[in-house]
Amino acid sequence: MVTVDAVIERDGKILLIKRKNEPFKGDFALPGGFVEYNESAEDAIKREAEEETGLDITIKALLGVYSKPGRDPRGHVVSICYVATAIGEERGGSDAADAAFFTLVEIKKLKLAFDHRDIINEFAVL
């Protein structure tokens, strides 16, 4: 299975969603989701960001591809992660109970889903 995620930054903060559904219901995560049939990864992350946060994003770079077995309890999931910026006001959406921007210091105190802490840490050293 292929998913996409995005580190969406604004004013030195990173956008996280609070997951509405399992797995990791109630935990924070990067916006993202599954790539649909006949959809590019770039289109998928733009769609997922809008569905989950209400934001239109501009992709700035590819951060990495994450494929460690066990990173997702639903099966062997490969995630393509982008760095992006956003325009508009964030809100919770389809799979998100809430969406908000956090500093790296604030993120250290949050419970994060999947391997998203590792992804954010990789982004932070760039």
Q: Would you identify the CATH H-level superfamily? A: Nucleoside Triphosphate Pyrophosphohydrolase
CATH architecture: Alpha-Beta Complex
Shape: globular
| Mean pLDDT value | 94
Which blocks of ≥5 consecutive residues have pLDDT under 50?
none
C-alpha Rg (nearest Å):
13 Å
Number of helices: 3
If you consult CATH, what is the topology?
Nucleoside Triphosphate Pyrophosphohydrolase
Order of helices and strands: EEEEHEEEHH
What is the CATH C level class, in words? Alpha Beta
| Most strands sheet | 7 strands, mixed
- Total beta strands: 7
Please report which band the strand proportion falls in: under 5%, 5-15%, 15-25%, 25-35%, 35-45% or over 45%. Answer: 35-45%
- Span from first to last CA? 28 Å
Question: How would you concisely characterize the structure shown here?
Answer:
By secondary structure, this protein is of the alpha+beta class. 21% of the residues lie in helices and 39% in strands.
